[in-house]
UniProtKB/TrEMBL annotation, chains A, D:
Ranges of residues in domain STAS: 3-110
Primary role: Positive regulator of sigma-B activity. Non-phosphorylated RsbV binds to RsbW, preventing its association with sigma-B. When phosphorylated, releases RsbW, which is then free to complex with and inactivate sigma-B.
PANTHER family xrefs: ANTI-SIGMA FACTOR ANTAGONIST TM_1081-RELATED-RELATED, ANTI-SIGMA-B FACTOR ANTAGONIST
Annotated protein name in UniProt: Anti-sigma factor antagonist
Keyword Phosphoprotein in record: yes
Keywords: Phosphoprotein
Organism placement in taxonomy: Bacteria, Bacillati, Bacillota, Bacilli, Bacillales
Pfam families referenced in this protein's UniProt entry, alphabetically: STAS
GO molecular function, one term: anti-sigma factor antagonist activity
Automatic annotation (TrEMBL), chains B, C:
Family indicated by similarity: Belongs to the anti-sigma-factor family.
A GO MF term: protein serine/threonine kinase activity
Organism of origin: Sinobaca qinghaiensis
The gene coding this protein: rsbW
Superkingdom to which the source organism belongs: Bacteria
Family matches, as InterPro entries: Anti-sigma-factor_SerPK, HATPase_C_sf, HATPase_dom, RsbW
Keyword DNA-binding: no
Protein name per the record: Serine-protein kinase RsbW
Length: 110, 166, 166, 110
């Protein structure tokens, strides 16, 4: 029921490793970790969801917010490592058509 | 089909931190009722969306989320209710849908997907409004992989496609 | 210590198959309340023993197990109750103890360890008898590994030793 | 919340591999698997609890019953692979003094 977030910075890329469940309780924690990164001009923000076992609409909303922020601030957001269940929610809601998403287990390297 | 049913009731403080507890409970109940992994995951999301709505919209100050589950031979009925003062919620299910990808990103909404997910992930959803809001969510049990169409009610697979095409 | 408390209530059919659901729920609640892995495992056993007693002893036919939990800053109180017709249960806690290894194997009992485990694994246990049996189990929260002795109430470590020496 | 039992027979030994949670719901299943084995004269019955994550008094009672049956029928019962949590329950209840128990991860070979 908890969320663990680790951030890694390389040259032009910030990678967030998310582990656990993203729901109404843990989403604020995710928002706090992502938003400041998307506010940096030219930044590539990669969010690795390999170890996310659960996400619901509050979590999806955080990614919509991050996408809007990245567009407004000229940064780039991509999600990688989504498992089938998590991917399914992005498809059902149509978010896969507006957010840059990569399924499977690939690590987030440029 | 017999009339036999097992009833569960639960009352939990309407706080975001406890939505996960409701998910755990529902996954335990649904697992005992014989549902598949995917069906259980769908129910966990639906029930969490309904609870999150209680946390976010039902009460001015504090209150409770009221969960009840009824297991019947061919279905589970999950009701999430509150004792808030909201009115005119019967039309809520009319304005739901997925993200509109033709819109500019800056106009996308960060909320508003909860009821849509509930409606997509469950087989049958009703909202009523007596003393607070009650959302009644039904999932049918398809034993041995046999898909059942009862009275033309779509299976979850149909529903999902429907959701994606909307 | 403030007066703040979070209240949970649950009503489940008194069937063995649902005792695991109660365990799941209690582990979720206790986890949110900040208890350690070992404390949570202890509580799961205690609450399962109490529920199993309801399943086995409370009702002639069918009935419900009633769970309520109260989370306070320094403790969790878990109550398992039934609406059975049992009377004179207040003395139940007096006749409990571990296996007597000096007895010949053929005289060992296969039951009778439930209340003993509850008493050993929780910090404080009371049984009352109003409309059915209610067992009130308390576990104190020791934040940051600091052991708290409140009013001389033993910590779980003390209790365990005590149990083994009985 | 479920229990999975596999039985393996060698020359003079029967090994039961138990996986899951032993409670009031699953204990009858365990009893059904163990009892017939303990009723065979000279049989060594090894129960491997390596993958048992939970046990309570109903489960402990099954082992008391199996012990009594093995004594009455001249067979031998041993429990192996108990993790710390499970071992603790056998100690608290004093059952470790009457049942042949081996902690840790060792497999049940003579
Ligand atoms: N339990 C409830 N009490 C009051 N209003 C509710 C309740 N559930 C849903 N609503 C209303 O329905 C709307 C849509 O809910 P939903 O689709 O979950 O999206 P969101 O909660 O993100 O707005 C909410 O904004 C709210 O106005
Ligand atoms: N909820 C209850 N209703 C009626 N009797 C109970 C209840 N809980 C416990 N008891 C009584 O207490 C006795 C001891 O319980 P316990 O230590 O759990 O062992 P066991 O259930 O194996 O007999 C039971 O045999 C029963 O007579």
């Amino acid at each position: 029921m908890n969320l663990d977030i680790k951030t890694e910075h390389s040259k032009e890329e910030a990678i967030l490793y998310i582990e656990g469940e993203v729901d109404a309780y843990t989403a604020p924690q995710l928002k706090e970790a992502i938003e400041p990164l998307t506010e940096k001009d030219g930044q590539l923000v990669t969010v690795d969801l390999t170890n996310v076992s659960y996400i619901d609409s509050t979590g999806l909303g955080i990614f919509v917010g991050a996408l809007k922020s990245s567009e407004a601030n000229n940064s780039k957001l991509r999600l990688v490592g989504l498992n089938q269940r998590v991917m399914r929610l992005f498809s059902i809601t149509g978010l896969d058509e507006v957010i840059d998403i990569e399924e499977g287990k690939k690590e987030g390297t440029q | 089909m017999t009339d036999h049913a097992d009833h569960f009731e639960m009352k939990i403080p309407a706080k975001a931190e406890y939505v996960g507890v409701v998910r755990l409970t529902v996954s335990g109940i649904a697992s005992r009722a014989g549902y598949s992994y995917d069906d259980i995951e769908d129910m966990k999301i639906a029930v969490a969306e309904a609870c999150t709505n209680v946390v976010n919209h039902a009460y001015k100050k504090t209150g409770y989320m009221l969960l009840s589950c009824v297991i019947r031979e061919d279905r589970i009925q999950i009701i999430v209710a509150d004792r808030g003062e909201s009115t005119e919620v019967s039309s809520l299910l009319e304005n739901i849908g997925p993200i509109d990808s033709s819109k500019p990103v800056s106009e996308l909404k960060e909320g508003g997907l909860g009821l849509f997910l509930i409606d997509t992930l469950m087989d049958k959803v009703e909202i009523s409004n007596e003393s607070g809001v009650a959302i009644v969510m039904t999932k049918f049990l398809h034993r041995d992989g046999v898909e059942q169409h009862v009275d033309g009610i779509p299976t979850s697979a149909d529903k999902q496609e429907q959701g994606q095409k909307q």
